[in-house]
Design brief:
The complex is a heterodimer of chains A (about 110) and B (about 120). Chain A has about 110 residues and is mainly beta. Chain A is built from no helices and twelve strands. In chain A, strand 10 and strand 11 form a beta hairpin. The N and C termini of chain B lie far apart (about 30 Å). Chain B is globular and about 40 Å long. By secondary structure, chain B is mostly beta strands. Classes of the chains: A mainly beta (about 110), B mainly beta (about 120). Chains A and B meet through strand 5, strand 6 and strand 11 of A and strand 4, strand 5 and strand 10 of B.
């Protein structure tokens, strides 16, 4: 079975400060990890993914994420937050390649204050 | 634009009525997924197609739900005898073509409100 946990319902950060949105996962094989962002009344937009290779992956809008196998984590980060980053963020996992669907976390609301 | 069009964007219906949602990928993609998202929650997997074959169904997909992809292109999701608990956003997604490791690209979703 594959599962994802996002321990924080909401993260508040001041504009210009670094942000971190946490994600931990559980899979039986090699994890394929993804981050998505959702703006109000919109579908999900892909931000970045980790499949293999460098543990630090870079994605859209200046976001990056760090894969940590020993801690089974895949935290989303950004060095300097923007007010426009305020949205709902979802971590997702797939247990290996192939046709299996992604399993999503419950989401973390990021609020960036001006 | 993710290349996935969903219609209608919003449907309000009375309990007991049937509703149908449609998903149209702009270009050919073998794999098409349906998810359901309730307020404040992450998307939950419903079902998955490879071409016209429905290969996997979640236990969330009760017998009131049926999905089809008759020609391996567009897909429909029908809910019969709707209940208030069916109120949710229904999301369609396609897998990046030819990529087992790829991400899903989602449409804007169809929001269902059951009164």
């Amino acid at each position: 079975a594959q599962s994802v946990a996002q321990p924080e319902d909401q993260v508040n950060v001041a504009e210009g400060n670094p942000l971190t949105v946490k994600c931990t996962y559980s899979v039986s094989g090699n994890p394929y990890l993804f981050w998505y962002v959702q703006y109000p009344n919109r579908g999900l937009q892909f931000l970045l993914k980790y499949i293999t290779g460098d543990n630090l992956v870079k994605g859209s809008y200046g976001f990056e994420a760090e894969f940590n196998k020993s801690q089974t984590s895949f935290h989303l980060k950004k060095p300097s937050a923007l007010v426009s980053d305020s949205a709902l963020y979802f971590c997702a996992v797939r247990d290996g390649p192939g046709r299996r669907a992604l399993t999503f976390g419950s989401g973390t609301r990021l609020q960036v204050q001006p | 634009d993710t290349g996935v069009s969903q219609n209608p964007r919003h449907k309000i219906t009375k309990r007991g009525q049937n509703v149908t949602f449609r998903c149209d990928p702009i270009s050919e993609h073998n794999r098409l997924y349906w998810y359901r998202q309730t307020l404040g929650q992450g998307p939950e997997f419903l079902t998955y197609f490879q071409n016209e074959a429905q290969l996997e169904k979640s236990r969330l997909l009760s017998d009131r739900f049926s999905a089809e992809r008759p020609k391996g292109s567009f897909s429909t999701l029908e809910i019969q005898r709707t209940e208030q608990g069916d109120s949710a956003m229904y999301l369609c997604a396609i897998l990046e073509a030819g990529a087992n490791t790829g991400e899903l690209f989602f449409g804007e979703g169809s929001r269902l409100t059951v009164l």
